[in-house]
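Late entry, written up from scratch paper. The run itself happened at the end of the previous shift, but nothing got recorded in the book at the time, so transcribing now.
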Amino acid sequence: MSLLKKIYEPLLAQLKQGVTPAKLAQSVAFGVVLGSLPVIGVTTSLCLVAAAVFKLNHVAIQTVNYLVYPVQIALIIPFLRMGEWLFNVSPASLDIKIMLHEFRLEFLLSMEKYGMTALRGVAAWAIVAPLAFVFIFFIAKIIFEKVLKKVQPKS
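Output as recorded:
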């Protein structure tokens, strides 16, 4: 099954079941934005909470969240580096051998160092996320409105 079908078919099914283009676009935007958070292992829970709080479509938000996982991986280092730049701190080494050595040598100090690096990455993401959300929402809404017009029975 092609990637396009994996995205298109579940979302089209939601439109056919009565989900509005705006709510579906909001679900997609939250799925992309929360799914790109530079912290592995928390996006599914965040999407679940967002869907409950904002009354979004769970199928759509989680489908998109899972599909953007490669994007999340690709954006981790850029967000970490952007966070270091924003806070004007020296870049932390992200070489796995160096990191393992540092953790073996000084575990708590390494937890603090890499924890702060992660927090700065989240801060960078938090700056980009609202802009990305608005952009994705409006583009997705336009697309879903056009798709809905095509699939609605003409009366």
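The radius of gyration is 19 Å.
(Scratch paper discarded after transcription.)
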